[in-house]
Amino acid sequence: MKAVCWHGTHDVRVDTVPDPTILNPRDAIIKVTSTAICGSDLHLYDGFIPTMQSGDILGHEFMGEVVETGSGVSNLKQGDRVVVPFTISCGSCFFCERDLWSLCDNSNPNAWMAEKFYGHSPSGLFGYSHLMGGYAGGQAEYVRVPFADVGPLKVPDGLTDEQVLFLTDIFPTGYMAAENCDIQPGDTVAVWGCGPVGQFAIRSAFMLGAERVIAIDRVPERLALAQASGAEILNYEELDPGEALKEMTGGRGPDSCIDAVGMEAHGTGPMALYDTVKQAVRLESDRPQVLRQAIAACRKGGKVSVPGVYGGFIDKMPMGAFVNKGLTMRSGQTHVHKYLKPLLERVQKGDIDPSFLITHRLPLEEAPRAYKIFRDKEDNCIKVVLKPFATAA
Question: 12 in helix, strand or coil?
């Protein structure tokens, strides 16, 4: 089959690789009908996530049709259309039973490796390094899905791939980011980053009752899309976010701040340059410019929500501000399984059509170009969907 494979920093290729096979009775094989490039994939593309190996198959946002199931999978049958959570979860461990699906104890075969980095291992993830299990990803024609008796959700008739594809990751991720803010009526929420997760966080904050959402970015098309959802916008290259947010909230600051950027944050001024240099020479693994701003800007007693991916170690953090303002921070990989059905219902009711985000639809064989235009924000690119069985025009 054809699959998008990582071969090094800024080097992804479409290779011919062996078809996946059933390895465990709880496995299923999915024919991928739609798959997407996530902002988190760019951390792999840019070489900032350790334990990648040449030839690893990328991709964790995918859906498709069931073509084969193991003997332990009774909930799926051949031909079912399914969306697949990017987090791989067993369904029966201490964490899964508490709806903490991305913390599953049984799905990362390389847990020992993650424990060296983080103390404990999160769940396995599709297509996201050997640290997270070494699972083949879904930017491919076919993919093996472990624990298929737990993860995949059947897609009801009448819904297109593009309406449900983002249930696999970025819609639940944005929603959980907003939910972690414990939004109360009248709240103001500031969202750093108007990429795909940020866009869903903005819309989710409104769905959960925020009165105002203030979106911060520098890319015109992203800011325009945020503004179209009802958000107020700030271009951080034109205004200092901290000062602007203080002015916009009567000096108090936002009730909640969402860092939808993570480890490759851009910025202006000496601290942004400091982070860029330290990350380049591997004296700091992540660039926490946005996280610093969110902590500094948030009102006293407020909440900082971090859906943005961080992979390792950061420094120059304003812990004095965090402690003395009495802030609460919540983060984590998304517990996708928890949100699949509730968010599917919102799509069915017409509360949101997630396809609003898609700007580029390309065949799988154009993945190398797609990665570049997505990373470099060329051609007004916000979100790319790849079609494994489409042919190039």
Answer: strand
